[in-house]
């Protein structure tokens, strides 16, 4: 056995959990922490935009013994009654998320969460996470038309009409270092400067492309804060294109031994994009491969490879889609302009922050999508609506006749191209359509398991139906408010398909006081450590015992800080150990 890579820690995955663990453990053990991430790095300007590049921007599992065909950003999974979208790349979900930072409401910690964790115990870690991630609301427009986001106002008006309140969401977007530190107003749109950790960022250009990767690095993605400091300041070793396939404990002699309990360390096997097998050894392993990746890896190690047989029988139980429900309202009478500004700017609370007994608890957030997608939607309209084609032809003929008359009598054609373009493009469906993002407290009763060597999910959707029905009713009210032509609950929701989609998969490795209740410990001294093992930790969305209703990355980050502090014995702060940060 080679001893050349006996490290202090190996981190699997670089999302919110993995980035925190990498940075904090590398601070404790500089140069002796290795992070393995299956996806690629995404430097400024590298996110796909053309149809050609998007075709390759997907993740597909490699067949055993073969090299990977697709190693792009979007990992889209289809499961029983619930599909999921997650990310592959250095920075994990932060690369494609909508930037919202929202602590969980206090009552969420009441049921199924261990006694050690509640909003008060997590509050200091939320504060640190918020400081590192630079979460603040979009700056006020203050007379600058470029900072006015129409849809924010539309949602505020709807909230008022619906008896609620629209509140500005804290978002992890760069509007200048001074704005992030609350020391000055925003940096002018499009200007660049170094953030507090030294990475160059651009003040947000309001392009609405946050969910397909920010090409100007205005999103405060993890590669620009936690991971940046980990690599540049604390000497973390980072290998991308490295997918972990197996974790095996070592015995006293240093050999792999599936009967061992981890006190002598672990061997981590992984493969690169070409399919080449590699391995590394470490005293500790932190699994932060995201809810789907972590459950899949641990289930495989326990049930298929037999290398981690002591893992709790609760592994895979308690999956939550965080109550996600996507909807569309099209053809409203109010301008919505969903192609402008950071993807989410506000939220309307329906009993999530202030629960009503017996009522489903959820919230409604606005959403932007890239302008290039709006062109695509316009291109689809003729196929979807023959009446639309006729109306456009009629309008074009009218303009043409008018121009022809102009030409006859004045000999002028000037401006006709402008008039044609205006006639064809005006009244586009996207400008008056809205994307409604609902999320709330679902039943968190899904089960993840291995079927034919791959992760499978069983989602008993009926137990969460009252929540989804309340969301659909809210969507209908939004339609009436905007006098829209149609409300479309998510495209796969129509009977008999009734399939849901989540971008917030959670659970399966729940924090608990005992292995009969969960998979990793919530007790001091062993926070986040898998029951049955020493030095094997889980830190990502999979450790949440329930959904949180709110966007979960803040809670995942805070929990990872809470676990890292327990492992390292170092009190965290939001400077990440970077001088003058
Ligand atoms: C479109 C979209 C919008 C979202 N918007 C928001 C939002 O506004 N606010 C919010 O709070 N949340 C949002 N989310 C959810 C958020 O991104 C996730 O909750 C969060 O990223 C989960 O963090 P994590 O640490 O659990 O794992 P992830 O961020 O998913 O990271 C896991 C990492 O592990 C890697 N990995 C997986 N398997 C392996 C393996 N075997 N070997 C090596 N590496 C591996 C993956 O490539 C990935 O990089 C959004 C998600 C999506 C898709
Ligand atoms: S709106 Fe555009 S520039 Fe601003 S964070 Fe999102 S993708 Fe980046």
Automatic annotation (TrEMBL):
- Kindly list the cofactors needed: FAD
* Domain Glucose-methanol-choline oxidoreductase N-terminal, chain residue ranges per copy: 202-300
Q: Read off the SUPFAM superfamilies from this record.
A: FAD/NAD(P)-binding domain
Among its keywords, does the record have Lipid biosynthesis?
A: no
Gene3D superfamilies the record matches:
FAD/NAD(P)-binding domain
Q: What InterPro entries does the record tag this protein with?
A: Cholesterol_Oxidase (IPR052542), FAD/NAD-bd_sf (IPR036188), GMC_OxRdtase_N (IPR000172), GMC_OxRtase_C (IPR007867)
According to the entry, every stretch annotated as the Glucose-methanol-choline oxidoreductase C-terminal domain falls at 502-560
Keywords associated with the record: Cholesterol metabolism, FAD, Flavoprotein, Isomerase, Lipid metabolism, Oxidoreductase, Steroid metabolism, Sterol metabolism
Q: Give TM regions.
A: none
Q: In which pathway does it act?
A: Steroid metabolism; cholesterol degradation
Q: Which E.C. number(s) belong to this protein?
A: 1.1.3.6, 5.3.3.1
Give the family, as the similarity comment puts it: Belongs to the GMC oxidoreductase family.
Protein name in the entry: Cholesterol oxidase
């Amino acid at each position: 056995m080679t001893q050349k890579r006996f490290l202090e820690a190996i981190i699997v995955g670089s999302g919110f959990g993995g980035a925190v663990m990498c940075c904090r453990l590398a601070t404790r053990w500089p140069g002796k922490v290795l992070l393995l991430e299956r996806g690629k790095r995404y430097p400024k300007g590298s996110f796909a935009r053309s149809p050609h590049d998007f075709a390759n921007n997907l993740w597909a599992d490699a067949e055993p013994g073969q090299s990977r065909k697709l190693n792009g950003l979007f990992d889209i999974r289809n499961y029983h009654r619930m599909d999921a979208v997650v990310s592959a790349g250095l920075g994990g979900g932060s690369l494609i998320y909508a930037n919202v930072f929202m602590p969980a409401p206090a009552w969420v910690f009441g049921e199924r969460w261990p006694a050690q964790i509640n909003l008060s115990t997590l509050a200091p870690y939320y504060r640190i996470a918020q400081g590192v991630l630079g979460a603040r609301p979009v700056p006020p427009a203050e007379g600058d038309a470029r900072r006015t986001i129409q849809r924010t106002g539309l949602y505020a008006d709807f909230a008022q009409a619906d008896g609620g309140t629209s509140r500005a969401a804290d978002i992890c977007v760069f509007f200048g270092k001074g704005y992030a530190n609350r020391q000055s107003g925003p940096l002018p749109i499009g200007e660049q400067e170094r953030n507090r950790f030294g990475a160059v960022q651009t003040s947000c250009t309001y392009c609405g492309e946050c969910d397909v990767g920010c090409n100007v690095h205005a999103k405060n993605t993890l590669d620009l804060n936690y991971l940046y400091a980990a690599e540049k300041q604390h000497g973390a070793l980072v290998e991308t294109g490295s997918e972990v396939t197996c974790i095996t404990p070592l015995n006293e002699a240093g050999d792999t031994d599936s009967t061992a309990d981890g006190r002598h360390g672990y061997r981590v096997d992984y493969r690169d994009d070409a399919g080449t097998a590699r391995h590394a050894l470490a005293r500790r392993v932190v699994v932060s491969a995201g809810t789907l990746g972590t459950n899949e890896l641990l289930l495989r190690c326990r049930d298929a490879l037999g290398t981690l047989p002591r893992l709790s029988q609760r592994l895979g139980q308690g999956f939550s889609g965080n109550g996600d429900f996507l909807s569309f309202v099209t053809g409203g009478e109010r301008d919505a302009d969903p192609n402008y500004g950071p993807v989410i700017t506000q939220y309307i609370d329906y009993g999530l922050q202030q629960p009503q007994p017996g009522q489903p608890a959820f919230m409604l957030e606005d959403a932007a999508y890239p302008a290039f997608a709006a062109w695509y939607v316009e291109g689809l309209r003729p196929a979807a609506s023959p009446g639309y084609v006729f109306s456009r032809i009629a309008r074009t003929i009218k303009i043409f006749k008018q121009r022809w008359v102009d030409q006859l009598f004045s000999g002028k054609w000037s401006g006709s191209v402008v008039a044609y373009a205006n006639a064809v493009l005006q009244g586009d469906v996207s400008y008056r359509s809205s994307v409604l993002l609902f999320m709330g407290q679902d039943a968190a009763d899904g089960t993840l398991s291995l079927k034919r060597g791959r992760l499978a999910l069983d989602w008993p959707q009926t137990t969460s139906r009252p929540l989804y029905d309340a969301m659909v009713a809210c969507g209908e009210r939004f339609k009436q408010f905007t006098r829209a032509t149609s409300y479309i609950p998510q495209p796969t929701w129509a009977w008999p398909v009734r399939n849901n989609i989540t971008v917030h998969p959670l659970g399966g490795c729940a924090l608990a006081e005992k292995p009969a209740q969960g998979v990793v410990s919530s007790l001091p001294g062993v926070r986040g450590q898998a029951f049955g093992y020493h030095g094997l930790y889980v830190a990502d969305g999979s450790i949440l015992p329930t959904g949180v209703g709110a966007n979960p990355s803040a809670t995942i980050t805070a929990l990872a800080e809470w676990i890292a502090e327990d492992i390292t014995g170092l009190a965290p702060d939001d400077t990440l150990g970077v001088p003058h940060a």
